[in-house]
Amino acid sequence: MQSHVPFGYPTPPASPTYDKYQFQPQQQPQYARHFQPVRCVPLAPEQRLGRLLEGKLQLTDILGTGAYGVVYSAIDIKTGIRYAVKCLSKYNADGTPLERRQVAYQQREINLHYKASAHSNVVSIHKIMNDVDCIYVVLEYCPEGDLFLNITERGHYVGNDLLAKQAFLQILDAVEHCHKLGIYHRDLKPENILQRTVPRTTAAVPPFT
Fold first, then answer.
1. pLDDT surpasses 90 at 16
2. Which of 19, 43, 99, 189 has the fewest C-beta atoms lying within 10 Å of its C-beta?
3. % of the chain residues with pLDDT over 90
4. Binding residue per annotation — 127?
5. CB 16 within 8 A of CB 9
6. 3-state secondary structure 140-192
7. How many angstroms separate the first and last alpha carbons of the chain?
8. Which residues are identified as catalytic?
9. Predicted confidence (pLDDT) at residue 71 exceeds the cutoff of 90
10. Which residues, 6 or more positions from 97, have their beta carbon under 8 angstroms from its beta carbon?
């Protein structure tokens, strides 16, 4: 484990004050009847590859896509350390700005994740970057992929009760930590559990809903 502080941001405390990470909802401008809201053509996920964030964090690969964003693999070109970067668009697929409820959902996910990320079995959140068309959330990179992959295709858990027990206890620890903070994940399944190392498993619960 690296001992330096990534991006100048320390690991969040167990009960952080995270107001500075909260984003204000986009103000929906008032338009005259003959004006239409400004549209922004969303970039395809692959169009962001190679982009350099803050002059040092380069997006290199697509790790996954979902209804609410794209997750990239990124490397700090100065240190060589790899991160995962979640890109949350501020616009819908048709180019219209997100509605207030959609922006509030993004804020809620980021703030809950930041609040819980001090635990060793919750994916660490390192920094948030507010760009023109999206929000970048810099996360810990879990190189071994998800638990489902390691159970099925790689077979690491087949006949290994001790390893399964270790993973299960780590997940329980993370869930208990979140519940103490009043946070409930609501979508826990092997596909949504990431692993840092295998076979000495370290399970990590990813962002919340």
1. no
2. 19
3. 58
4. no
5. no
6. ECCCCCEHHHHHCCCCCCCCCHHHHHHHHHHHHHHHHHHHHCCCCCCCCCHHH
7. 28
8. 187
9. yes
10. 26, 28, 37, 38, 40, 90, 91
